[in-house]
């Protein structure tokens, strides 16, 4: 490409209306100023100024350029912004340096805004250099052939550059191939540039599966585009205009070997001159260089190595002038319908658009009120004949003929006789039969209809938004210059002489593989299957760690985690083990079983490479973000050494994540060639540091745990000493296990308003997501801020009840605010997430409604910052934040606040009060306990277990098993009760007591559980038959029925193991005065089934039976089997009485809006709440005394029911209903029962 070393400055000062500068007539509807530079100039900058001596200036304008002065193209800046900022007064000069230069002869300045108190006034300066080039014109049947001096040309490095402008969407620009399967092809396909490149792979030469690298779009716009191909071996850079794509080519070699020649403009068929394999290029090329050789210059000088068939060396300019329809509601073009000599009418035009709907043509017919409409409907072309307001007929193109692809399409509509024919491109025509001859009305409306209903023209949905050209009515071409001058037809919201279509998917702003689609004014991202969500597929749908899943209340299982959140790494599946206080992340690999090794030597060692379920980058992110990681190495040996006993050199080793060889085998820091037995001083032979080095005939073991996490995981193991007689080794590399998330509780406390933490400049030009937790008592303060010359981004607590997110990317400040109905400075943790992308901005605070704002379709995109990122304050040391900030994450990167706080005055590392800042960390009466960096849950007073007290404790029972739990209370008070003592005790007792449990059984009747006193008072909960009915009932009985127990509420919940309820018998809840006989009957049957999550106040009898069997408070009869029935019951929940008032009476419970029965089917669980009084349920201890005279056969039958029976029945009752019922009872005397109590299950 040739550039003259010169500097050109042009100044325009046109005198108009008595002052210096250009000013159009006030009556000019669409004024513009056009410059003719006399020759093609490389323009690098422009400057504007108002009209001298007046109040006229332009505050905003468009810049267009053209080679011919007819077909114009709009210049767009780096962000795709077409609008240039102009002047604010008449005297100031505003310069704009162009991000990419313009090589053109004509420039046009189109004013958009001007001084509202004056008029348009303009003086301009243009900066640039003269531009010269070698041009070749290809007519679609011509080509250039560059023949090599030798038979073939083999290159390791290639640089090919050219500029082109095309009149068609298809055509070959460059082609070369070799006999060994090498080839290179550069061609236009659907107005996109495609590069096919292969090195030494014969298979791909003859296959139909050639893969192209495509770039750019809309390249058939008749304007110049630049192409640069750079290749070194297999690495290739393809650049089209300002967009570059890097890729690695296919093939087995590093050289491109091309035989005989390279062709430009087409692929000629060997032996048949003028015949081509693919469609030739139709347009112009300039400055065509192949590895430094100017191909067009050689052709112009008629050098023998160049064959130029039908190529001319000046660029012909076709008169294809386009018009842009700018508005989807008000644009239209009206042209007169000329008379046809043969009758009827014929209309032809071309169009291109991104929109799926829009009116193309509407005309009234001679027979009113009939009219014809040609429109784009659901991406297809549709012709509608409106015969009346209610009657119409339609024809459409095929489903595969979508016309909103941004390409030029040709549409024609013609009538002959009693038929109307619609044709799209070169596809078969669609015909509509008419009842009468058809003639068009006076006018044809293209693209839309006037706002007033003229001649029956109505926009069916939207007006057309796109480009049109080559209008022909009854075989007469329409001159749109006459329309522009007001001498033909009419128009509104049109832009003449240019097609302003813009590809909003270039570059593709959809992240993480999201698919981009677009309309005329905006783009959309399809995030399906990516694992991400949001307007640009920026946000991961997965948590970043197992620790984060634990905070959401999840239990152990397989989860997908995204270690870097919205960063470039994708999600990966791991196993989260949450059964301990530490939450372990487990990553498996391809060889977890023990492997036996024999026959390996140091020269030919055994090598195993481990492929993990996560990529190396994901593993590195996981390990670096964890507090600790470890990996077990099980190594057994027999006459197989790890180290050479003579010189200590390793005979076996493993390779770390960075590819480095490691020779320590657990328990030691890197660099120490020893095993765990040496650290523990228990090696079988203390003369060696490893058991295997004793080299004995018997099996030895050197199992250890690798815990230096910077080296983990193990990527490869090498074993080299198993080739001697009787020598062998057995190894197993365990999965990678990591615990802790260093980011979850990484916090800093700010206690001076002038203090802050500073970090490097935020790199978030196109997208930024910021999330963190805060707690404070201050009314306001800045959480973080980063500024540039004009741009900035800031998140702050603007008032005690409001969080504000503000930024400016060059389009003016944008502010999003969320107001809370409760104070946010309540010293509780609150979550904030702010996101800004090229498409929208959003702000989230806790669970409050999300606030978002769409970005302007035409505006700056990039956030340009240059200062440091300030956290907890600003550079001005004003409005600083006082309080705690933790888990600050920006674009998937967690900031180490603690490390930076250690060296910053006014800020301390960490933040006390994790538990006080959240009420949902520990569940089911679990108690939150503070730790230095986080918390743990104390589940000792909960019926549940696990890290968050959410895992149910369940036990399977057979008829011989039961649990008795004795409550501890003051014996003196119980035995020597008096009114006074009782009054004292009542005064100190709690005001509410409750009990809860879940059960699952197939048995009816069945005893569920009891609570009793030594004074023989009880309440019994049984499952019984409802007379002869097949339904089942829960009965709660009292004996004696103390008048203080007043049932207040019974609530029944229904739960299903699957989404579709199964038709099971109904369940009815009764409260009765006495039921001794039923209790004895149920007690004689015992209970076969599963009980889970049994709780009485702060005591968990069932959990104590499993964990504290040695306790004197717990008596276990029979054999207990821990089960998972509670988890099965806790599947999908349906609340049968959710949100309804609960009413209680004697006999059957009646729902406020239902019949006498609370009908429950499926899997149900029951929770019983008993207020103020002792909940007493009849125990098997009582009925065993009353049933002493029972038939001996029943007793023998019970003894024969063993544990094996319970296991067989468990599978049956897992699909049976489990019941959860809540009983609320009130004590009118506000006292509790003072007898010593026993709780039986």
Automatic annotation (TrEMBL):
<dbReference type="Pfam" id="PF00754">
    <property type="entry name" value="F5_F8_type_C"/>
</dbReference>
<dbReference type="InterPro" id="IPR002181">
    <property type="entry name" value="Fibrinogen_a/b/g_C_dom"/>
</dbReference>
<dbReference type="InterPro" id="IPR050372">
    <property type="entry name" value="Neurexin-related_CASP"/>
</dbReference>
<feature type="signal peptide">
    <location>
        <begin position="1"/>
        <end position="21"/>
    </location>
</feature>
<feature type="domain" description="F5/8 type C">
    <location>
        <begin position="1"/>
        <end position="129"/>
    </location>
</feature>
<keyword id="KW-1015">Disulfide bond</keyword>
<keyword id="KW-0472">Membrane</keyword>
<comment type="similarity">
    <text>Belongs to the neurexin family.</text>
</comment>
<keyword id="KW-1133">Transmembrane helix</keyword>
<dbReference type="InterPro" id="IPR013320">
    <property type="entry name" value="ConA-like_dom_sf"/>
</dbReference>
<dbReference type="GO" id="GO:0016020">
    <property type="term" value="C:membrane"/>
</dbReference>
<dbReference type="Pfam" id="PF02210">
    <property type="entry name" value="Laminin_G_2"/>
</dbReference>
<keyword id="KW-0732">Signal</keyword>
<keyword id="KW-0245">EGF-like domain</keyword>
<keyword id="KW-0677">Repeat</keyword>
<feature type="domain" description="EGF-like">
    <location>
        <begin position="912"/>
        <end position="950"/>
    </location>
</feature>
<dbReference type="InterPro" id="IPR000421">
    <property type="entry name" value="FA58C"/>
</dbReference>
<dbReference type="InterPro" id="IPR036056">
    <property type="entry name" value="Fibrinogen-like_C"/>
</dbReference>
<protein>
    <submittedName>
        <fullName>Contactin associated protein family member 5</fullName>
    </submittedName>
</protein>
<feature type="domain" description="Laminin G">
    <location>
        <begin position="322"/>
        <end position="499"/>
    </location>
</feature>
<feature type="domain" description="EGF-like">
    <location>
        <begin position="501"/>
        <end position="538"/>
    </location>
</feature>
<dbReference type="InterPro" id="IPR008979">
    <property type="entry name" value="Galactose-bd-like_sf"/>
</dbReference>
<dbReference type="InterPro" id="IPR000742">
    <property type="entry name" value="EGF"/>
</dbReference>
<keyword id="KW-0812">Transmembrane</keyword>
<feature type="domain" description="Laminin G">
    <location>
        <begin position="135"/>
        <end position="315"/>
    </location>
</feature>
<feature type="disulfide bond">
    <location>
        <begin position="884"/>
        <end position="911"/>
    </location>
</feature>
<dbReference type="InterPro" id="IPR001791">
    <property type="entry name" value="Laminin_G"/>
</dbReference>
<feature type="domain" description="Fibrinogen C-terminal">
    <location>
        <begin position="537"/>
        <end position="589"/>
    </location>
</feature>
<feature type="domain" description="Laminin G">
    <location>
        <begin position="746"/>
        <end position="911"/>
    </location>
</feature>
<feature type="transmembrane region" description="Helical">
    <location>
        <begin position="1157"/>
        <end position="1183"/>
    </location>
</feature>
């Amino acid at each position: 490409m040739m550039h003259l070393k010169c500097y050109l400055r042009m100044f325009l000062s046109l005198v108009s209306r008595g002052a210096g500068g250009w000013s159009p007539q006030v009556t000019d509807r669409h004024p513009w100023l056009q410059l003719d530079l006399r020759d093609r100039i490389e323009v690098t900058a422009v400057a504007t100024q108002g009209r001298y001596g007046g109040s006229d200036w332009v505050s905003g304008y468009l810049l267009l350029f053209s080679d011919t002065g007819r077909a114009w193209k709009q210049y767009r800046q780096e962000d795709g912004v077409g609008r240039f900022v102009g002047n604010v007064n008449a005297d100031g000069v505003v310069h704009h340096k162009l991000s990419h230069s313009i090589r053109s002869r004509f420039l046009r300045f189109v004013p958009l805004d001007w001084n509202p108190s004056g008029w348009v006034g303009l003086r301009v300066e243009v900066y640039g250099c003269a531009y010269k080039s070698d041009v070749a014109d290809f007519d679609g049947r011509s080509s250039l052939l560059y023949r090599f001096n030798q038979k073939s040309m083999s290159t390791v490095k290639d640089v090919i550059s050219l500029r082109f402008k095309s009149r068609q969407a298809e055509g070959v620009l460059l082609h070369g191939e070799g006999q060994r399967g090498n080839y290179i092809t550069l061609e236009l396909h659907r107005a996109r540039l495609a590069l096919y490149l292969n090195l030494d792979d014969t298979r791909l030469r003859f296959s139909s599966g050639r893969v192209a690298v495509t770039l750019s779009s809309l390249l058939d716009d008749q304007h110049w585009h630049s192409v640069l191909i750079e290749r070194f071996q297999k690495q290739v850079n393809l650049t089209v205009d300002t967009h570059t794509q890097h890729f690695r080519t296919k093939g087995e070699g590093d050289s491109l070997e091309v035989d005989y020649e390279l062709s430009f403009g087409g692929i000629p068929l060997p032996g048949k001159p003028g015949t081509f394999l693919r469609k030739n290029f139709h347009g112009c090329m300039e400055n065509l260089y192949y590895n430094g050789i100017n191909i067009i210059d050689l052709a112009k000088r008629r050098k023998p190595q160049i064959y130029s068939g039908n190529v001319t060396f000046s660029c012909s300019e076709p008169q294809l002038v386009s018009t842009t329809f700018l508005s989807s509601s008000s644009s239209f073009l009206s042209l007169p319908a000329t008379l046809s000599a043969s009758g009827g009418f014929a209309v032809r035009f071309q169009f291109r658009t991104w929109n799926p709907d829009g009116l193309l043509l509407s005309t009234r017919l001679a027979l009113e009120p009939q009219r014809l409409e040609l429109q784009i409907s659901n991406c297809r072309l549709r012709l509608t004949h409106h015969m009346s307001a209610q009657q119409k007929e339609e024809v459409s193109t095929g489903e595969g003929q979508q016309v909103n692809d941004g390409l030029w399409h040709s549409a024609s509509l013609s009538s002959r006789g009693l038929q109307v024919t619609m044709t799209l491109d070169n596809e078969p025509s669609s015909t509509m039969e008419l009842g009468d001859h058809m003639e068009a009305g006076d006018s044809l409306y293209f693209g839309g209809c006037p706002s007033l209903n003229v001649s029956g023209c109505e926009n069916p949905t939207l007006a057309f938004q796109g480009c049109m050209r080559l209008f022909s009515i009854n075989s007469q071409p329409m001159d749109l210059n006459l329309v522009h001058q007001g001498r033909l037809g009419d128009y509104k919201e049109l832009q003449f002489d240019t097609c302003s279509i813009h590809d909003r998917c270039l570059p593709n702003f959809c992240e993480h593989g999201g698919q981009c689609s677009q309309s005329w004014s905006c783009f959309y991202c399809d995030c399906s299957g990516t694992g991400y969500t949001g307007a640009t597929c920026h946000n991961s749908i997965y948590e970043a760690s197992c620790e984060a899943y634990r905070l959401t209340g999840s239990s152990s299982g397989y989860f997908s985690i995204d270690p870097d959140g919205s960063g470039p790494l994708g999600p990966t599946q791991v196993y989260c083990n949450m059964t301990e206080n530490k939450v372990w992340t487990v990553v498996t690999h391809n060889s977890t079983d023990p492997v036996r090794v024999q026959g390996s030597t140091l020269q030919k060692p055994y090598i195993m490479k481990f492929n993990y379920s996560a990529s190396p980058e994901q593993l590195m992110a996981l390990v670096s973000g964890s507090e600790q990681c470890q990996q077990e190495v099980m190594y057994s040996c027999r006459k197989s050494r790890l180290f050479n006993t003579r010189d200590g050199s390793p005979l076996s080793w493993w390779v770390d994540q960075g590819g480095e060889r490691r020779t320590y085998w657990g328990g030691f820091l890197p660099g120490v060639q020893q095993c765990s037995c040496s650290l523990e001083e228990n090696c079988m032979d203390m003369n060696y540091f490893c058991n295997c080095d004793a080299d004995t005939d018997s099996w030895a073991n050197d199992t250890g745990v690798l815990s230096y996490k910077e080296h983990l995981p193990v990527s490869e193991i090498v074993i080299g000493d198993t080739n001697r007689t009787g020598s062998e080794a057995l190894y197993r590399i365990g999965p990678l296990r990591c615990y802790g998330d260093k980011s979850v509780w990484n916090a800093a406390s700010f206690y001076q308003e002038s203090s802050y933490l500073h970090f490097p400049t935020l790199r978030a030009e196109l997208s930024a997501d910021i999330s963190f937790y805060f707690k404070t008592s201050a009314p306001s303060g800045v959480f973080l801020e980063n500024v540039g010359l004009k741009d900035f981004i800031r998140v702050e607590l603007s008032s005690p009840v409001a969080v504000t997110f503000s930024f400016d990317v060059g389009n003016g400040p944008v502010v999003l605010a969320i107001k809370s109905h409760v104070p946010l400075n309540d010293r509780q943790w609150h979550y904030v997430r702010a996101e800004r992308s090229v498409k929208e901005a959003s702000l989230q605070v806790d669970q409050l409604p999300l606030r978002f704002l769409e970005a302007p379709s035409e505006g700056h995109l990039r956030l340009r910052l240059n200062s440091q990122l300030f956290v907890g304050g600003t550079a001005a040391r004003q409005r600083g934040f006082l309080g705690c900030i933790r888990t600050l994450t920006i674009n998937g990167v967690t900031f180490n606040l603690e490390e930076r706080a250690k060296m910053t005055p006014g800020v301390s590392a960490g933040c006390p009060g994790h538990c006080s800042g959240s009420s949902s960390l520990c569940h089911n009466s679990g108690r939150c306990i503070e730790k230095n960096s986080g918390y743990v849950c104390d589940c000792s007073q909960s019926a549940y277990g696990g890290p968050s007290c959410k895992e149910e404790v369940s036990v399977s029972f057979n008829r011989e098993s039961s649990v008795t739990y004795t409550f501890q209370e003051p014996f003196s008070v119980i035995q020597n009760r008096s009114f006074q003592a009782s009054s004292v005790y009542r005064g100190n007792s709690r005001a509410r007591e409750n009990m809860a449990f879940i059960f699952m059984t197939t048995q009816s009747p069945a005893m569920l559980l009891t609570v009793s006193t030594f004074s023989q008072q009880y309440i019994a909960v049984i499952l019984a038959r409802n007379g002869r009915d097949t339904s089942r009932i829960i009965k709660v009985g009292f004996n004696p029925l103390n008048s203080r127990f007043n049932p207040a509420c019974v609530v029944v919940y229904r739960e299903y193991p699957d989404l579709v309820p199964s038709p099971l018998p109904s369940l009815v809840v009764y409260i009765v005065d006495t039921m001794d006989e039923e209790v004895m009957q149920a007690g004689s049957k015992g209970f076969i089934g599963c009980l889970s999550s049994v709780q009485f106040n702060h005591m968990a009898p069932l959990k104590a039976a499993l964990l504290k069997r040695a306790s004197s408070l717990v008596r276990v009869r029979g054999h207990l089997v821990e089960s998972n029935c509670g988890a099965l019951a806790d599947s999908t929940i349906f609340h049968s009485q959710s949100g309804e008032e609960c009413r209680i009476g004697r006999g059957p419970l009646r729902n406020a809006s239902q019949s006498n029965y609370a009908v429950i089917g499926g899997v149900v669980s029951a929770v019983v709440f008993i207020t103020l009084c002792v909940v007493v349920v009849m125990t098997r201890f009582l009925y065993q005394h009353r049933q002493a005279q029972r038939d001996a056969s029943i007793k023998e039958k019970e003894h024969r029911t063993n544990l094996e029976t319970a296991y067989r029945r468990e599978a049956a009752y897992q699909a049976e209903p489990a019941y959860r019922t809540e009983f609320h009872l009130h004590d009118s005397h506000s006292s509790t029962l003072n007898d010593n109590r026993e709780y039986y299950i």
